[in-house]
Amino acid sequence: MSRRRLLGAAGVAGAAMVGASACASAEGRPKPQDVLRGRVVAQTTEIPEGGGKVIVQGKLVITQPEKGDYRAYSAVCTHSGCTIQEVTETENIHCLCHGSEFDIATGEVLKGPATEPLEKFSVTIDGTDIVLDKSDDS
Ligand code: FES
């Protein structure tokens, strides 16, 4: 094996080890949404009827498909993990990374490359507060 080839192989192995350790350190951490359980994540006045809003810090998308009906989804795209960036005027949750679109009422995939729906979370409305439920069973 030439010296150049050997160095290239070592670089690939090193990058793989860095990637593996980055993944390992992410395991066991709470999801951003879990940290927000039981807390106010948005105000009803911020969420347009027939649309939604991305709560970037909490990695959440809050939608209002029908008047007074609020839904919450993970803003982590199921395709490759980008943070969802917008809820479009066509009433879809839209990931700009590769163009996946999700339904604001169900979180189901409307357009790939994603094949899995967004993770759903339960919310409770208290006045104008949208509170992320402590568990999704409530
Ligand atoms: S990460 Fe969202 S479409 Fe690829």
Secondary-structure topology with pairs:
Blueprint: H1 3-26, H2 32-35, E1 40-43, E2 51-55, E3 60-66, E4 69-74, E5 86-87, E6 92-94, E7 101-103, E8 109-111, E9 120-121, E10 123-126, E11 129-132
Antiparallel strand pairs: 1-11, 2-3, 3-4, 4-9, 5-6, 6-7, 7-8, 10-11
- Which regions are unreliable across 5 or more consecutive residues at pLDDT < 50? 3-25
Radius of gyration (CA) equals: 19 Å
**Total number of domains:** 2
Number of strands: 11
Which molecules are bound in this entry? FE2/S2 (inorganic) cluster
In short:
With 138 residues, the protein is an alpha+beta fold. The chain is built from two helices and eleven strands.
Structure description:
The protein has helices at 3-26, 32-35, and strands at 40-43, 51-55, 60-66, 69-74, 86-87, 92-94, 101-103, 109-111, 120-121, 123-126, 129-132. With 138 residues, the chain is α+β, with helices and mostly antiparallel strands. It has 2 domains: 1-30; 32-132, 3-layer Sandwich (Rieske Iron-sulfur Protein). Strand 3 (60-66) and strand 4 form a beta hairpin. It binds FE2/S2 (inorganic) cluster. FE2/S2 (inorganic) cluster (FES) is lined by residues 77, 79-82, 95, 97-100, 113-114.
Question: Which terms summarize this structure?
Answer:
138 residues; alpha+beta; Rieske Iron-sulfur Protein; 2 domains; four-stranded antiparallel beta sheet; 2 helices; 20% helix; disordered N terminus; binds FE2/S2 (inorganic) cluster
